[in-house]
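Anyone have tokens for Type I restriction enzyme S subunit? Sequence:
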Amino acid sequence: MALGLALTEESQQSFDTKQSQGLPHGWTWTTLGTVLPIQYGKALPERIRNQQGKVPVFGSSGRVGLHDEAIAPGNSLIVGRKGSAGSVHFSEVPCWPIDTAYFSEGTSAIDIRYAYWYLQLHQLGRLDQSTAIPSLSRDRYNVQPIPLAPRAEQRRIVARIDALFAEIAEGEAALAAARNGLETFRRALLKAAVTGELTADWRAACAASETGHDFLVQLLKERAGATTGRRFRRTSNATTAEAIAVEKLPDGWTWAKLCDLADIGTGGTPLRSERRFWEGGNVAWFTSAATGLPFASVPNEFITEQALEESNCRIYPAGTLLVAMYGEGKTRGQITELTVSAACNQACAALQIPEPTMKTWVKLWFGSFYLQLRKQAAGGVQPNLNLEIIKSLTLPIPPLAEIVEILSRVAEAIAASTDTLGTLDAEAADAARLKQSILKAAFEGRLVPQDPADEPASALLARLSAPAPEARRGRGARTRAK
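Reply: yep, here.
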């Protein structure tokens, strides 16, 4: 069979293997380069794009902006070339793929949506052979095998996939809504915990023998290391906006500055140019990126003992809380707890709170105060928190017995929601596997019935490879200049 493309030895073996596999009547094997040739996108710097235009601009990761001109027609496939190599996107309208992507408008032998679904199954990203930025070679793309169905059957396959995926999408939307509902529940739970709403019934039934103020004074005595302790001035008149949106604390609660509860510090980043600070290091070193999880146990990197001695880094013990003062996306304001002794960079505030119950309470409060804390950041393009903002934070302190009750109720509720989240994740994974099963069945000819009356795919390829007829020109005919 003439494919119009030279195959590498490796690809020839793959192609021969595919040809030996049975296909339904009327189907045939061909290559992507034969029926779905790709072209290079064209650079379009953001500064010259017209964001008021209606033409979508695509990069390897998908839509990245708008413009007022197109270089690819409607119903085109966009394939990631660099970065998100092998990713596949579909544009119904004319578009502009930039130079990190390829695009294809297909050929007469293939339905463009049939090609789209096949590439979703085929996962071109596996062809990446680069050692730095992930990339997809056009040569490797061109020789990849594709099972070609009769054109009429291609349309039936696409219609069936679209219908089945639409049903799955409804289920996925319900899963997403349930996940959002869990997040809303979690925020409401934490707010109720730190305002006293969660334990209103407990306070009515159990009169605490000690107040939050008593607990705070005891902590201050322990921190001061004196039997009499330092005097503590009540801060019950503190501005509530500095703490949380309540007009009045529950009976027995009080306010405290975070700097009265914790030793607060930060870290640093050793010079990257000094290899002796990094190579062969065995000191765990965390950045603000680690605050995305409740506990930090896997270091971002390791530094050396020399880095500790010659930089602003210091070791914090396991149990230290790290608060992200700045970072990308949702990072700023997140909190985590070290499970190992480690250093951190200057994007983290390190909170050492020896009393375990108070430490857990502070961690819970930061979770409830996340959105408000982010708003306190200062700066221009990327607002940041700083140590002074962290130290000045004011939070409510319940009696010790009530803190224990709150933490118990929150842990029980979070455990239940975590179980539910696990169920949602399992169902989402099932949906993903079901979609892959549907695509696999489709391209093995098992999704829709074959029709013997359909024109076979071999005829499509024969027409595609046939030379175009030359236009016959009459005697004396001239071409008019335009």
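The chain is about 40% helix and 15% strand.
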